[in-house]
Amino acid sequence: METTQQVELPPPPGVISSIKAGFDVIAAHITAILLPLLLNLFLWLGPRLRMDSLFNSVKAYMIEVWRAGGIPAEEIQRSVETLEKSIPTINLFWILRTFPIGISSMLSSPEAAQTPIGNPAILQVDWLSLAGWIFGLTMIGWIGGGLYFRSIASISAVNKDELISPFRAVFQTILLSFACTVIFYMIAFPLLIAMTLLLQVSIVIANIAVLILSLISMWVIVPVFFWPHGVFLRKQNFLSSIASSIQMARFTLPTSSMFILTVFLLSAGLNFLWSIPPEDSWMTLLGIFGHSFVTTALLAASFIYYRDMSTWLQTVLERMKLNAPKRA
């Protein structure tokens, strides 16, 4: 004979309550916004690292290669004009903002030529220094991101004994970020080739494929968003952290999707507000402070949500075992 024990399950953590808790904890630890504040100030008032000279040095060779490939002259002209407009707007110091772990920042307006203290200094890269700059800035971004995430996790955690050490935080950040980069390119290149082929066949089919990929992405974004959290809150290595986030997404997808959507809407919507002042006005300081505070608060909210949801999920799984049918 089988008997079933009825066990009442607790409600899951709320989306709004987690976000409110994130703002409260950062308001009580305002120094936590120091790293994004400094990075924003550097990207705003600091020098620009550009590749205009590098592009000009290879432009003639690039045009010859296109001509040899049979590309029409009109298409070459359009491409060159587009590159001539876009290349000078690129600031390679933006690489300091790494993903998925990194210090939050506002990307400076590409059209901005002046700051309140005058024209920014312009640094140029060449073929010999380009790879070194990219590698160095990426490593600085990963190291800074690991320390930034650890600092926010430390003020969001209940059990301070479970906090990861700074050295291990940086080491796991580099491993996780490198793994994410490899996975991204392994997925992106085949998709790019497939979409290019579909566009050659039919635009309608390509649009349908984009719609299907958008629906599938909803199942991917949630675990990816929480990939780093187990590293900083539970001392997990990057593989265990990825596995934990996938398990949490599996059981909490609707609520977790709503949390991520709310965070995205708040961050993207307020970014329009922070970008209203022109970059040659000191009013931009208000936008930088607001952006640094809000993005740090949302990061703290994500740690609080992950912490509470992991505890809730563990409780639910234990009670489900108690509620499993038993033979008399």
In words, what does this structure look like?
The chain has 328 residues and is mainly alpha-helical. The protein has one domain. It has ten helices and four strands. The strands form two sheets. Strands 1-4 form a two-stranded antiparallel ribbon. Strands 2-3 form a two-stranded parallel sheet. α2 runs antiparallel to α10, α5 crosses α10 and α9 runs antiparallel to α10. The relative contact order is 0.16. The mean pLDDT is 86.
Quick summary:
The protein has helices at 15-28, 34-45, 52-68, 73-86, 127-156, 166-201, 203-225, 229-234, 238-274, 284-322, and strands spanning 2-3, 48-50, 122-124, 326-327. The model has no long low-confidence stretch (mean pLDDT 86).
User: Could you say how many structural domains there are in total?
Assistant: 1
N/C terminus separation: 5 Å
**Biggest sheet features:** 2 strands, antiparallel
Task: Point out poorly predicted stretches.
Answer: none
Binned strand content: under 5%
What is the helical fraction, as a range of percent? 55-70%
What is the residue-mean pLDDT, rounded to a whole number? 86
- Number of beta-strand segments: 4
Structural class: mainly alpha
Name the strands of the widest sheet in spatial order.
1-4
Q: Number of DSSP helices?
A: 10
Judging from the principal axes of the Cα atoms, what is the shape? globular
Q: Measured on Cα atoms, how large is the radius of gyration? A: 24 Å
Order of secondary-structure elements: EHHEHHEHHHHHHE
